[in-house]
Amino acid sequence: MGLMDGKRGVIFGVANDRSIAWGVAQQLHEAGAELAFTYLNEALEKRVRPLAGSLGSTIILPCDVGSDDEIAAVFKELEQQWGTIDFVVHAVAFANREDLKRPFSQTSREGFNLAMDISAYSLVPMTRYAMPLMSAGGSIVTMSYLGAMLAVPDYNVMGVAKAALEASVRYLAAELGPQKIRVNAVSAGPIKTLAASGIGNFKQKLHTMEERSPLRRTVTQEEVGKASLYLLSDLSTGVTGEIHYVDGGFNISAL
Ligand code: NAD
Ligand code: 0WE
Q1: Order of strands, edge to edge, in the sheet holding 8-12?
Q2: For 168-184, how does the pLDDT look when each residue is reduced to its tens digit (9 = 90+)?
Q3: What is the CA(199)–ligand 2 centre distance, in A?
Q4: pLDDT tens-digit series, residues 18-45
Q5: Mutate which of 112, 143, 155 to test ligand 2's pocket (most atoms within 8 Å of Cβ)?
Q6: What is the DSSP letter of 97?
Q7: Bridge partners of residue 37, in order along the sequence
């Protein structure tokens, strides 16, 4: 008997087996959930199909979250195949690589808008199109980072986008609460993923976390997956609009 037996949902953001979204998918599958996956492009489709297949998933759809039409098409397909869904996992982010090393004041209008569009706004249409399929209630989880709250060196425009994402979580949670749809974020500590491998000095960020976090180590995709499982399951039916830190206590520790 699993925590997620009989529940169905869709996961946005698997790129490979190191993705945080994949850590979440594995936990949901072990708990008995039925999963659909989306991928950004054909290059990633080659990685996502076998991973999804290994969890028994057959609904694997393309989606660039920069397009409302592509997001709408995903939920239209889910409605045709399943009728209703119980959860959505949003684990996507993107900013121009140069904007994660240049001084923040040098961020271009285009770079700012791109980071906001993909990393923050996308949660809004995702929620909008998911809502009609969540007639019995549901749970939506997105991924954030401490850079939303603090000025973390080099996180720059992504920090501003994560601040907008976390505020969006609160506004969506406030609006959808009466329909028993919950919206929360997991704020993860640094983890070596594809998105992180594009960051200069990422090793240093992991090292700082190992030295200064209360638990004296980094966190894993599995740990983010387990916290997400809690937020997506009926263990957390009283929880919405929350930013749930999975960072070994780093956020509470000054030094
Ligand atoms: P990842 O590279 O495995 O995942 C990022 C995903 O975003 C990829 O699957 C990529 O295809 C997708 N993506 C980018 N642009 C997209 C678009 N236009 N449309 C659809 N998908 C798009 O890296 P990850 O670290 O697993 O990142 C997942 C989430 O976790 C992100 O929101 C990231 O900000 C967040 N996060 C990461 C860390 C970390 O240290 N790795 C820490 C905290 C939060
Ligand atoms: O959200 C992120 C990273 C998201 C990300 C990563 C890339 C790299 C490749 C967004 N866009 C891009 N664009 C690319 O071209 N994290 C939480 C991981 C991360 O990134 C940092 C961090 C941490 C932690 C950047 C600077 C400082 C710390």
Answers
A1: 60-62, 34-39, 8-12, 87-90, 138-144, 181-188, 243-246
A2: 999 999 999 999 999 99
A3: 6
A4: 999 999 999 999 999 999 999 999 999 9
A5: 155
A6: G
A7: 11, 60
Half-sphere exposure of 250 (CA within 13 A, CB side): 27
Distance 246 CA to ligand 1 centre (A): 16
DSSP 3-state assignment of 252? helix
Check if the beta carbon of residue 8 is closer than 8 Å to that of residue 206: no
> pLDDT tens, 136-165?
999 999 999 999 999 999 999 999 999 999
Verify whether residue 171 is a known catalytic residue.
Answer: no
- Closest listed ligand to the CA of 13: 1
Catalytic residue among 121, 145, 230, 245: 145
- Is residue 254 scored above 80 in pLDDT? no
- In this structure, is the dihedral angle defined by the CA atoms of residues 30, 243, 90 and 111, taken in order, positive or negative? negative
Give the C-alpha separation, 100 to 157, whole Å: 7
Q: Which of 217, 192, 220, 193 is nearest to 207 (CA)?
A: 217
Spell out the residues 6+ positions from residue 120 whose beta carbon is closer than 8 angstroms to its own: 161, 162, 164, 165, 168
The reported pTM is 0.98
pLDDT given for residue 201 in this prediction: 86
39 flagged as catalytic: no
How far apart are the CA of 173 and the centre of ligand 1, in A? Answer: 22
User: Which of ligand 1's atoms lies nearest the C-alpha of 194?
Assistant: 2
